[in-house]
Amino acid sequence: MAIFFQGCQFNCRFCHNPETIHMCNHCGDCVKTCPANALNIIDQKVVWNKDVCVGCDTCIKTCRHNASPKITWMGCDDLLKEIVRVAPYIEGITLSGGECTIRKDLIMELFPKVKEMGLTTLLDSNGSLDFEQNKEILEYCDGVMLDVKAVNKEFSDWLIRYPNETVLKNLEYLLKIEKLYEVRTIIFPDRDQDNEETVRYVSGIIQDKCFYKIIRYRQFGVRDEQRKILGDFTTGEAYAQSYVDLAKSLGAIKAYMV
Amino acid sequence: MSDALNIVKDTTLTYDQTLLALAKLGENTDSSIVYSDEYYQAKAAGALCDLNEGRLPYRPRYICPDYELLFQKGCDFLGLTPPKDLLEAVNDLEIFYSHVPSVTCYPVYLGDLDRLLEPFVLKEDREYAKKILKLFLLHIDKVLTDSFVHADIGPEDSVTGRLLLELTEEMQLAIPNLTLRYDPQLTSDDFALACIRCMLKTAKPSFANHRMFVKEWGEDYAIASCYNGLKKAGGGFTLPRLKLYECSLTAKDVDDFLNHELPRYIDLQLEYMDKRVRFCVEESNFFKSNFLVTEGFVKQENFTGMFGLVGLAECVNHLLGIEDKKKGFGLNEEATKLGLKIMDVIDQRVSEHEAPYCDAFGHRYRLHAQVGIDSDGMEDSPGTRIPIFAEPTILEQLEINEKFHPYFPTGTGDIFKFEETYEKTPEAILPIIKGSLNRGLRYFSGYLENCDVVRVTGYLVKKSEIEKLNQKKQSLNNVTIFGKGAQDGAHALDRRVVKHDDHGTR
User: Fold this and answer.
1) Span(s) in chain A for CATH 3.30.70.20
2) Which residues of A touch B438 (CB under 8 A)?
3) ipTM over cut 0.85
4) H, E, C per residue of chain A
5) B460 against B313, higher pLDDT
């Protein structure tokens, strides 16, 4: 089961679910445009009525703050209640986002209890949290799926608009302590140099020790203005495959494309 | 125009389909078996349905021969000797299949193909064995032209099982229907995953709860036709069904239904079954002189009657006055509880009935959740399923199924339609199947939404073949016409699975 957290420090240009970046500021714009009356302002807060919502995403399109009114506030016990119910049908849980590690305390409360249920625990992270300085979060975590979006500093600053030093530090640290489940890199159309630099760097470090997921850039969900810059089309399969081949030739034999 | 003339002039019927329709017409001119007036009234009102079995049961509805016996001693009547290699084995089977009758005239059970053929496959080069099996499967699809033709594999992994899966994917044929007898303790994860991958491409195999079936039937059980559990070297005499929605229409209220109307309809259906079973055993020639019986490929004591039902959801919703099915059976605790109460009444009454013959089962019939037929429309959902267009999340759907599946030793099942992304992550489906079987699910079928071979309620058809009928052309498969009816009338191809949208946070 995947559990998605709202909120992320990064502001990646290619983000295909930008509504997960910020928390709702309760401006109420979406309440006015909701065609199903599933959004209301109660006590000056936007409240989402899940049962009435038709899932048309008009609210997401309306929002000017890269946020979503369609979130549910849940504590550890609320999450456990949901997990217990699906536990017989799953092998484990993955926390994703947004960025899950911004709720570090919740994770540390949740994971030991999930492990007790015999389930696996994975974190899907943008790598902004310095894991070496926060070892305790990994104690009951089976592995981290780490995004390495850009290695070149200039490219990274432009692409994700956040420093990437910690990400690269985490890459080496997680590998060393054997908690790196997989690394993911997105291949952008016609950015040969940037793509190559990232794939070469990651492959050289991870070698055969973890999966390397090469993801084709997809335009779906990307903000209009960014789509104009990055491309209004999906990276070609053959082009992306050439980076899988490159990764493998450099020793990252568990590279594959999605 | 006479009915016979109508049949012979119908250009959408193949020669064999014309012949079978004429035979049924002839059979139905007889009225040797006489039922009570009350039975005929209930049938005319649509509360009872005989699934057009025909008026003269001149063979049991489903026959599951002991093919191991064929391989051990051959068959005198057909002049077959025990096979010495793979070619002889598949040839023996192909010949034998043509002489195994059923209600559709085609064999509904082809045997545990992997177990039967494995010793011979292992003696051949893999590619050569694959070629022989390919021709074998082609023969089955083109000669046994009926989607109720069903083969079983598992629970253990085998070379033959793997080859059959490879060929099923490559050939994309609707026939035969295929089931993996699945037990996580006997079936490797690797083989189960191979089955899931094949299922996502071809809508088969389905997963049968091996442990559950063994407990009820012993090791020698067969999955035949749609998903019918039966005893090997035996089968099912007859399968009529209560149309529970129509049954509920004559009840004044819930109590009246549970205490009077439902028991009354149950007894009428039992009357029908008893009379047919008696006729089949005592009057027809099958159990007296058919070589399957005289040479021991089936034994009369291993047959039982299948007590069928459909439309539990609509019955419950009607009794509780629920008009919006999205708030009804399966999605509403009160409705689900009433469903269980109804099942308890049926289970209890049928298990108290002393059935003629059925010796291997303590003279008892066994319950069956029937999958529906082409003419059912939207009034009666298959068996105890949640209606089409009202499906909750896969989790809730499984939880409901787990409560109802244990009632039906002679078969029930549900279909889960997966979106394309699952093709890349079949390993996410395995724990779902494992978990649900462990919690009482009997039978799990799945398919990917964009496949040509799709599962309609319980059998497989090709969408491209339905399209032929839509264009008034012939389809070789007898069952395509049922698929068309189920699609047109009951939207059976629209079954969907709502993704468990974990926490609505995205």
Assistant:
1) 25-67
2) 88
3) no
4) CEEECCCCCCCCCCCCCHHHCCCCCCCCHHHHHCCCCCEEEECCEEEECCCCCCCCCHHHHHCCCCCCCCCCCCCHHHHHHHHHHHHHHCCEEEEECCCHHHHHHHHHHHHHHHHHCCCEEEEEECCCCCCCCCHHHHCCCCEEEEECCCCCHHHHHHHCCCCCHHHHHHHHHHHHCCCEEEEEEEECCCCHHHHHHHHHHHHHHHCCCCEEEEEECCCCCCCHHHHHHHCCCCCCHHHHHHHHHHHHHCCCCCEEEC
5) B313
